[in-house]
Specification:
The chain is 23% helix and 26% strand. It holds the Pfam family ADH_zinc_N.
C-alpha cells in the first residue's frame, strides 16, 4: 500500500510517499481501507521532531474514516463504514496517512446508515471527539450555560462552538484577527472577542458574573487570563497548545486560581481507552446533525492524497480557518 512516511524530522518535505506492507490485524484489531482523513497539529509536531526522536520510519495520522477490510473477530463486517481516532496511531502503530490502516477495535466507531459524504465524515473524529471529551466529561456542560472558547478559529475550536450551540449553550469565541470574526459568527458564536492576550475584562463586560466554563486552546500563554473569566465554581479545560510549550511559570494556586474554580487538561489520547470508550461518544449523532444541516460544517478545504505536503504548509500558516481533509 502507499503511505506517507517520516524517516527524519523536517518540514513538509519530510513526508515521503512510500510503498509499505499493510499490517495484518490481530484478534483485537481491525484493518480499514482509508477513504479520507483529517489533518491535525499533532502530525506537524511529529514531522518536525517535537514528539521525540524518530529512530524508525513513522506513518503519521491520528484519525480516519473508511471501510472495514478485515475484522478477525467478526464484530465488524467487511465493507462497513467506520471512523477511528487515536489508539496509538502514529505513536505505537502506523497512522492514517495511508491507503490502509490497522487499528484497535476499541478505537473504531460504526458509521452505518449515515448518508454523509466521506469528505464531511472526515471532519468529525478527532476535532469533535476532543471537544466532546473536554466539554462533556471534563467540564460537564449543561444547556443554558455560557462557554468561552479561546482559540475559536482552530478546527477543534470551531467544532467546540458548533457542538456547544447544538447542546444549547451560549458561546463566546475568540480570534486574534478581526478578519475572522464573521467566520466565528457563521459557526454559531453568540459573541466574538478579538484576543490581544488580555480579554478577561472584556468577557466580564459581556457576562458580568463570569462564564460557566472555558475551553483553553491557546494554552499556557493565556491560561491565567482565561481563568479570570470564570464565575465562582466555574471550570476551564486546556486542550490546545497553540501558544507554545505547556509550561506556566510561577503559577500561584491562591492568586491565579480564583476560589472554587477548577482547572484540568484533557488529552485526546484518552479517546478509546477504558476511561473513555469511543462507543460512548456522540459521533453518529453529530453526523446526523451535520447531514440535516442542523450544524454548520467546519470543513475548510479538501486535498488529494498527493497534496499532503501542501496541506501541511497551509495548516502551519494558520490560515486554514477550519478542518483540512485529505481524500483517497
Amino acid at each position: 500500500m502507499k503511505a506517507y512516511v517520516i524517516e527524519q524530522p523536517g518540514g513538509p518535505e519530510a513526508l515521503q510517499l512510500r510503498d509499505i506492507p499493510s499490517a495484518e490485524p490481530t484478534s483485537d484489531e481491525v484493518q480499514i481501507r482509508v477513504r479520507a482523513f483529517g489533518l491535525n497539529r499533532a502530525e506537524t509536531y511529529l514531522r518536525a521532531g517535537k514528539m521525540g526522536d524518530i529512530t524508525t520510519p513513522r506513518v503519521p495520522g491520528i484519525e480516519a474514516v473508511g471501510e472495514v477490510i478485515h475484522d478477525p473477530a467478526g464484530v465488524l463486517r467487511t465493507g462497513q463504514r467506520v471512523a477511528t481516532a487515536m489508539g496509538g496511531m502514529q505513536f505505537s502503530r502506523n497512522g492514517s496517512y495511508a491507503e490502509q490502516v490497522t487499528v484497535l477495535r476499541n478505537n473504531v466507531i460504526s458509521l452505518d446508515n449515515l448518508s454523509l459524504s466521506w469528505e464531511q465524515l472526515a471532519t468529525l473524529p478527532e476535532a469533535y471527539l476532543t471537544a466532546w471529551g473536554a466539554l462533556d466529561k471534563s467540564l460537564a456542560i449543561q444547556q443554558g450555560q455560557t462557554l468561552l472558547v479561546r482559540g475559536g478559529t482552530s478546527s477543534v475550536g470551531l467544532a467546540a462552538i458548533t457542538y456547544a450551540k447544538a447542546r444549547g449553550l451560549t458561546v463566546i469565541a475568540t480570534t486574534r484577527s478581526a478578519e475572522n470574526i464573521e467566520r466565528l459568527y457563521q459557526m454559531g458564536a453568540d459573541e466574538v472577542v478579538v484576543d490581544n492576550g488580555d480579554i478577561a475584562q472584556r468577557i466580564r463586560e459581556i457576562t458580568p458574573a463570569g462564564v460557566d466554563a472555558a475551553l483553553e486552546i491557546v494554552g499556557a500563554t493565556t491560561l491565567r487570563d482565561t481563568i479570570r473569566t470564570l464565575r465562582p465554581f466555574g471550570a476551564v479545560s486546556v486542550i490546545g497548545l497553540l501558544g507554545g510549550p505547556p509550561v506556566v511559570e510561577q503559577f500561584h494556586l491562591m492568586q491565579d486560581l480564583p476560589g472554587g474554580t477548577r482547572l484540568n487538561f484533557f488529552p485526546s489520547g484518552l479517546l478509546g481507552t477504558p476511561a473513555l470508550p469511543l462507543q460512548d461518544t456522540p459521533l453518529a449523532w453529530l453526523a446526523k446533525e451535520l447531514a440535516a444541516k442542523s450544524m454548520p460544517s467546519i470543513l475548510s478545504r479538501t486535498f488529494d492524497f498527493d497534496e499532503v505536503r501542501h496541506a501541511h504548509r497551509l495548516m502551519e500558516s494558520d490560515r486554514a480557518l477550519g478542518k483540512l481533509v485529505v481524500m483517497l
